[in-house]
Amino acid sequence: MNIHLSQYANGCHAFDAVRAGSLLNASSPVNAVPPANPASKACLRACPAPPPRRPAMTLVEMLMALSIFAVVSTAIVTMLHGGAQVSTALGNSISNQWEVQSAIARIIQQTRVCTSLSVPGGTTGGSSFSLVTEPDAGNVTYNVSYDLITASDGTKQLQETDPRYGASILIHNVQSFSIRTKNLTPPQVAILTLTVGGAPPVSRTFRITPRNQ
Prior knowledge:
single chain, 213 residues, alpha+beta, three-stranded antiparallel sheet, 3 helices, rod-shaped
């Protein structure tokens, strides 16, 4: 009986010794996880991970973007075209007004000092007239005529023909021109009406009266 108890005790001591050895081996530096390398940590800090890749446009998104671009481009081109048309019309209107005013000033100056004024249309009206200038220093007079002619491009032009200077165009792109006498008895008064240009046209009506008759 004593023998068996001593064997049992010896077995327990052996089991404890084996268990203690196992725990010692598990906690020893040999089986422990090695510490991280400082150089590896520095590399990770210096070389960050690349950013996530941006997803590409789909076919539907690309078609929508092209449609919006086409609508905006059409609106811009239409606006620029309209602005160019307005600028062209404004420039033509200013040019026509300047040309008409210059021609009217010249006709009034010529007829005011003329010695005679001839209006073939009389009170009915016509598209031409002529005048005789006052005598110059050599006591010579000149017959100056004004006629509505058709240019080579089909437009109407008011032409002045003066023997001293030749033929010159006073007004281009004349839409209508007429001159008529207001009365048949002196003093002679003529009414001149003209329309020049397109949209918007320039229209003028004025009187001319010779003072040397």
